[in-house]
Design brief:
The structure is a homodimer.
Chain A (H helix, E strand, L loop, with lengths): L2 H5 L4 E2 L2 H6 L14 E3 L4 H14 L3 E4 L16 E4 L6 E5 L4 E5 L4 H8 L4 E2 L12 H7 L6 H4 L6 E8 L4 E5 L10 H5 L7 E9 L1 E2 L3 E9 L2 H13 L6 E6 H11 L8 E9 L1 H17 L4 E5 L2 H12 L1 H8 L2 E4 L2 E2 L5 H15 L3 E6 L4 E2 L1 E5 L6 H18 L18 H4 L2 H14 L14 H4 L10 H4 L7
Parallel strand pairs in A: 2-4, 3-4
Antiparallel strand pairs in A: 1-2, 5-6, 6-10, 7-11, 8-9, 8-10, 12-14, 12-15, 13-14, 13-18, 16-20, 17-19, 18-20
Helix pairs in contact in A: 8-10, 8-13, 9-12, 13-14
């Protein structure tokens, strides 16, 4: 049996142009060309491809739309990429139970489009939601601006069809609440393609709110904006979203999409959803909180058009940085939200000491920072300096009791950093669980967990993973 | 090193009276006396006890308050019970971030008591919440009446200190959202003591609602009550709780605690919480829905006293069955809530065909049934007939697309039934994950997964678990 016999000759790509197109994901600074790209159309074809890889000892990397920012879909040179792009069927919709079942290649936004007429939507909303796939969202446990109130991907997936790394097809989870046994679905969500391939998912949908109100508040400092966030949450209010942008990102976004933002040092975008009466009362309370924290100006958007304009600048912020700087690195760290002001001051100090500009645009309510470190790779030493600054920002997050990644994942980019957050014993258990799903060690090797070759030895981390035993590690 | 040297001579129990007290949990029909009961006071002592068990090849069973209903804490005859009752410290409270850290032996209700003055509470509320421990809640992923809106234990645990089955201490999860790496915390929650012992947990707290309204609705049939549930959820309303009781349980509860319930075939207790305006509007909408579905009467409770009285009958329902029947078996199954009326009709048919009375009192909003099968063990054949009826009820649940347990867990009671819900491949992966945490197979053996001796061979389920290899299985 050949790969062509499994998926059809048109769906095995081996030309240099095709392989180049799959050589990286959103972490474009790292590129590896695989041996082939395989595009199965059904769960059975995915399982047959995985069994072929096992029989031939070929490492494989699953890929959705390739919008990930941590190199989770970076190919392995000796391996194949298994692309899920052809699996884009809406399998079934159950509006009475507020469930939808879709194949993994369906885009995030198409899920909401499929049920919007029934008054339902799918809350997790990564910035890439127009193109990123549900399968990729599951692999990375994706978040988004509205996860503050509504939760991450893991809170919305109730069941999945899953091809194990041994090529078997399993059903994980259940359409009903709280299924028995070990929660294998939870460990698969966010496992970044290291345990197997989710080919179909059943998602919990949410009733569209009666009313949505969006509030923009301008502040004279990031400190004041950070205090406003703490005051809102401290008042017992959980808005659907609280986003923060600093002066550099506001100016870049303005230049790019003319969102009409005020000139200020920091702004908050706060969205409140729910029943009409409660939204009105909460909006008043939030307005009082931001004014008490020193906001110089507030604006509200109540219509869909006004709201879309207010969000346009936020959603364009990453891309807008391309107008300001030839290169930038997006860091992704998490801190307790009570530490926002202090950590932002620390980042400002790094900006001064490094001479590199740093923009901040992020999910303030979750404490999920996205500092953008600007550099020019044409200037000798700047790329290295940017990398050092990004690492120092992670140190600030860890020192504040935070985490090395909020929603972009570990992937290739942060596999070595895992040892800064977890002990050797923690990593050993993770690796044993990985081995329980993937005894062959062929599923996305080199991602998620540190490898001795790239990261050095981690004290107490004993990899019993067959990846090492088979000598594959040296090749990665 | 002896167990006495680790925990102190007063905290190793070996007298027949002490061992008899630990011979069963809430599933009192199964009893096994262990060799000893060990009561450690710290995480380090728990780890040392587990290492002692490993060094001596002694199986062990962790135990909280022993209120579980599936025999999850049933001892092993050759083993020890590790009781967490002495670990009842509130470690820290962080009201600004709405987090509390407690040791595993703290009771569920004591968590809420510790933060009530700050306007916070811990939502999951098993009926046993006055005595059951947080550690036991984590082991079983406990639910409760208010999990419909607020989620199960797994939705409220953000981090844990965890003693692995190899006796190492690990930190799982993170105080901040969405930590990286494999979600080991999620797989530990609900693993029923088969992976290790959680000694300390950090819980997400919830802001107490501005207003709570409780509605009681009486119906002429369980069909009409089931339709009301579907109508409420279908209208996009998610009450905090929707509980159903049928005639038999209403009468038993009335006789026991005089809650003042109306005489009817079925009643719903519906609790609505949130902002004051929204609660008022939602209560009107729910009242309209239940009247349209055929409710003969509705009552509301707005004060804490009225509400306590309304809940008293529901909370006493299980115990009240003791007045009606010498013995009863509590079944625990889940169905999609749109199938409520049909499955209740099926249970009614089983009552007729078996000649055994069956009471129903359950979490209707979640579709989590708790049929109580009444029998008298003094009457020859009745216990067996009750067991057959309970099994037939599970068949009804599985045929409706449901699950073998909602919140009581698999434990000893339903280990064999796992093969009716999962394939051999599913069970193999679960068992491999179990082995990743517990390579020695000494953690709560014989629970959660089927064993060949008790359940027969499950096609495709290959246990690579060392429990079998060491020949321990024959003794269990």
């Amino acid at each position: 049996m050949t790969l062509e016999a499994i998926v059809g000759v048109d769906h095995v790509l081996t030309t240099p142009a095709a392989l180049a197109a799959y050589a990286c994901d959103g972490l474009t600074s790292h590129r590896v060309q695989p041996q082939a790209v395989v595009l199965p159309a059904t769960t059975d074809e995915v399982a047959a491809v995985v069994r072929w890889c096992r029989a031939t000892g070929t490492p494989w990397v699953a890929r959705g739309a390739g919008t990930g920012l941590s190199g989770g879909a970076l190919p392995v040179a000796e391996g194949v990429v298994i692309g899920l792009a052809r699996m884009r069927a809406i399998v079934s919709i159950d509006t009475a139970n507020e469930r939808i079942t879709v194949q993994s290649g369906v885009t995030n936004l198409d899920v909401t489009r499929a049920v919007a007429a029934d008054g339902l939507y799918y809350p997790p909303d990564p910035s890439s939601q127009q193109v990123c796939t549900i399968g990729g969202n599951v692999a990375e446990n994706s978040g988004g601006a509205h996860c503050l109130k509504h939760g991450f991907t893991t809170h919305h997936v109730v069941a999945a069809t899953f091809v194990t790394a041994t090529g078997e097809v399993a059903r994980l989870g259940s359409a009903v609440a709280d299924p028995p046994g070990l929660d294998l679905l939870a460990v698969v969500i966010g496992s970044e393609g290291t345990l197997g391939i989710v080919t179909e998912v059943t998602l919990r949908l949410t009733r569209a709110p009666e009313r949505v109100e969006t509030l923009l508040a301008a502040f004279p400092s990031t400190d004041a904006a950070g205090e406003a966030v703490a005051a809102i949450i401290g008042a017992g209010v959980v808005p659907a979203a609280i986003e923060m942008m600093d002066r550099l990102t506001i100016e870049a976004a303005e230049a790019a999409v003319h969102a009409g933002y005020p000139t200020c040092e920091a702004l908050l975008l706060i969205e409140i959803d729910g029943g009409a009466d409660d939204v009105a009362a909460t909006t008043r309370l939030v307005t009082d909180s931001v004014l008490a924290a020193g906001a110089s100006e507030t604006r509200t958007a109540s219509t869909a058009e006004e709201r879309a304009r207010m969000w346009r600048g936020r959603k364009a912020a990453f891309a807008a940085m391309g107008r300001v700087s030839p290169d930038y690195y997006v860091q992704d760290g998490v801190i307790p939200r009570t530490r926002l002001a202090a950590v932002l001051r620390g980042i400002r100090a790094l900006e001064t000491s490094s001479g590199l500009r740093i923009g901040n645009v992020f999910h303030a309510g979750d404490g999920n920072l996205h500092p953008l470190v600007l550099y020019d790779r044409a200037v000798a030493g700047e790329a290295e300096r940017a990398s050092d600054v990004a690492a120092a920002i992670l140190d600030l997050c860890l020192d504040a009791g935070g985490s090395i990644t909020g929603e972009h994942g570990v992937g290739h980019d942060k596999a070595c950093a895992m040892a800064r957050m977890f002990t050797g014993a923690d990593l050993t258990v993770m690796d044993r669980v990985r081995g329980a799903f993937d005894p062959t060690g062929l599923a996305n090797p080199g991602k998620l967990l540190p490898t001795p070759r790239l990261c050095g030895e981690v004290p107490g981390f004993y990899r019993a993973h067959p990846t090492e035993l088979a000598g594959l590690a040296e090749r990665l």
